[in-house]
Design a protein that fits this description.
This protein has about 400 residues and is an alpha+beta fold. The two termini are about 50 Å apart. The protein contains ten helices and eight strands. Helix content is about 55%, strand content about 15%.
Length: about 400
């Protein structure tokens, strides 16, 4: 094919598990394409990835979890395995599919239909014959091996693999005959073609065409109310800096939970790979984040001796915070249902945007909170400073909330 011609996409393509050809379709017999070399390469990559995962799993199964530090390292490795498994599954599936690769083509209803298939998965490519031009043979590197090429719109494409010249010439005759038949059925010159008017379809307004949430909006009220709970904890229940820092960490985990739901809504089948991938990197980030908070603010950098028992430590950390944890969970749930679903934000978002949104919201806020936490720790954790930290987090949280939904 001429290197100056660019590849062009078909008029329509779709994925399907079935490809029912019409009875009047003309089948084009394409030669088999050898894909086993690519399958062997992908299979070797699958074996390497699977062996690494198996080794990590074997080491993880014998690991004992005694304290919070052990638990966070265990969770970090677990999330890593979840993410690595996505690659293992994809490589394994690609190996099987490449070994079962095939392709077919036909002329049907004024279209050239080309169907590569990987096992049961079929990619159906439709080329409008009225736009197919300059169907030709090009040398494929051998004396008698040629490849069928054709121009389509502003580019070129090929049909099938290299094949003997006699077979290719027979296929071209069939395509030329079908192309001529399409041209013969075109409307004669000078005759107008009546095109029925298209009835406009009402499209519901999308979230990004609306004003961002305000303090009086349902999600704004829920957010402020949820952030007032830790303020009450500091004023009336003697919460210290460790309680506040763990609570802010837990809110990030809640945001991650609702992000997985958003990925499921937007990605649909792609969420089967997108959700584990997000859980892997976000879960690993959260595990290391908690380990940092636990070491600096909960147990303390000057702690000596063995860590407390895991169950005792977790109960002591999270049980006093359960009312605020519940409030934060409800707050982000209100935002999910009123903004993401109710205002149809999912219509304007991609999986990439959804996956990166938690980091955009969390990282800046967490850096500000941790920096403030260090200052408060150096000051001896006065109540006034804790109140200012909660108010700072509330302001940052609401500002991030408005930007996210603007």
């Amino acid at each position: 094919m001429n290197n100056q011609q660019r590849l062009v996409f078909p008029g329509r393509f779709r994925f399907a598990l079935r490809d029912d050809a019409a009875a009047e379709a003309t089948t084009l017999d394409l030669p088999a394409r050898r894909m086993w070399p690519a399958a062997l390469i992908v299979g070797a990559m699958f074996a390497v990835f699977a062996s690494v995962e198996w080794t990590t799993l074997a080491g993880l199964s014998g690991q004992r979890v005694r304290g919070v530090t052990d638990l966070m390292m265990f969770l970090f490795q677990t999330f890593w395995i979840v993410g690595w498994s996505v690659g293992v599954v994809i490589l394994g599936a690609m190996t099987i599919l490449l070994f079962s690769y095939g392709e077919s083509a036909r002329l049907q209803n004024g279209k050239l239909v080309y169907v590569p298939h990987l096992g049961p998965l079929k990619i159906i490519l439709d080329y409008d014959l009225a736009r197919v031009r300059n169907v030709r043979l090009e040398n494929a590197g051998g004396d008698d091996n040629v490849r069928i090429c054709f121009d389509y719109d502003q580019g070129s494409n090929t049909l099938g693999n290299a094949m003997p010249r006699a077979e290719a010439e027979s296929l071209i005759k069939q395509i030329h005959g079908a192309t001529a038949g399409v041209a013969a059925t075109d409307a004669p010159p000078g005759r107008a073609i009546d095109i029925p008017p298209v009835k406009p379809v009402a499209v519901p307004p999308r979230a990004r065409e609306q004003a961002p949430p305000t303090l009086a909006s349902p999600s704004g009220i829920a957010l402020i109310a949820a952030n007032l709970v830790p303020l009450a904890g500091v004023l009336f229940f003697h919460w210290n800096l460790a309680n506040v820092m763990v609570l802010f960490w837990a809110e990030s985990a809640i945001i991650g939970f609702y992000t997985v739901l958003k990925i499921a809504v937007i990605g649909k089948l792609m969420a089967l790979a997108g959700a584990p991938f997000f859980l892997a990197h976000f879960g690993g980030f959260m595990a290391m984040h908690f380990l940092f908070i636990y070491g600096f603010f909960v147990r303390g950098i000057h702690a000596v001796g063995p860590e407390p028992d895991l169950r005792v430590a977790l109960l002591g950390i999270f049980v006093p915070l359960w009312p605020s944890l519940a409030a934060l969970f409800v707050s982000h749930g209100v935002s999910f249902f009123t903004n993401f679903l109710g205002q149809r934000e999912y219509l304007d978002m991609t999986m990439t945007e959804v996956m990166t949104a938690p980091y955009n919201r969390i990282i800046v806020m967490q850096f500000a909170i941790i920096f403030g936490g260090w200052i408060i720790m150096l000051l001896g954790s006065p109540v006034g400073a804790l109140i200012l930290l909660v108010l700072l987090k509330t302001a940052l949280d609401f500002n991030a909330h408005r930007k996210e939904h603007a």
